[in-house]
Amino acid sequence: MPVILIGFMGTGKSTVGRLLAESMNQSFCDLDELIEKEAGMTIPTYFDTYGEQVFRQLEQDLLKKAIDEYDILSTGGGTPTISANQKVIQAAMGRTIKLDAPIDEIRARIGDDMNRPIFKKLSQQAFNELKEKRDAIYTKFCDVIIDTSQKNPREIVAEIKALIYSNTDELNYASL
Ligand SMILES: Nc1ncnc2c1ncn2[C@@H]1O[C@H](COP(=O)(O)OP(=O)(O)OP(=O)(O)O)[C@@H](O)[C@H]1O
Ligand SMILES: O=C(O)C1=C[C@@H](O)[C@@H](O)[C@H](O)C1
Ligand SMILES: [Mg+2]
Description:
Elements: E1 3-7, H1 13-24, E2 28-30, H2 31-39, H3 43-50, H4 52-69, E3 72-74, H5 83-91, E4 95-100, H6 103-110, H7 117-121, H8 124-141, E5 144-147, H9 153-165
Parallel strand pairs: 1-3, 1-4, 2-3, 4-5
The chain binds adenosine-5'-triphosphate, (3R,4S,5R)-3,4,5-trihydroxycyclohex-1-ENE-1-carboxylic acid (SKM) and magnesium ion (MG).
Residues 7, 9-15, 32, 74, 76-77, 109-110, 116, 148, 151-153, 156 line the site of adenosine-5'-triphosphate (ATP).
């Protein structure tokens, strides 16, 4: 039963997923890293070379493989917004956890890191609107939401582990 971390850019999916896997001694995959490995180039270069649509196809192809193979998966910020990916995530019957943070904290975390092509191309207002729009999708497809603001990654890992090891009813409130 995989643990799948979803959420907007900069909410900490990669950081927390890696730490969580380490602390549980489980296998870990960061979908963006898998894409970069398979493509043989960075995501910004892939976007520049092939465009977002081709990127989304590769992301979709690798999501299925990663969900089948790994215990803990950190997705990309856009992964759960594609309907084919939503079906794959739901079919995995895992624990889908949305990480969240206020937009100002996300900006502070990712700063001017231009490794995120979606962030790079959007105005401040469009970025804010994208977060709102995507948040509704993440919420619909997750079992639980973890607010990561003002918490360090280790505290978030502890929170996730407490949820995993507690009554699973709590993990289902968001999808009711
Ligand atoms: N809880 C946290 N508190 C403060 N900074 C954090 C926290 N979690 C992650 N960060 C920092 O925020 C930045 C983004 O984190 P990370 O890359 O893990 O996010 P992400 O959700 O995987 O983003 P993306 O969707 O773009 O892959 C990194 O610099 C990371 O060190
Ligand atoms: O939010 C997004 O659409 C993206 C987030 C990153 O994780 C990468 O998957 C890519 O940069 C696209
Ligand atoms: Mg990431």
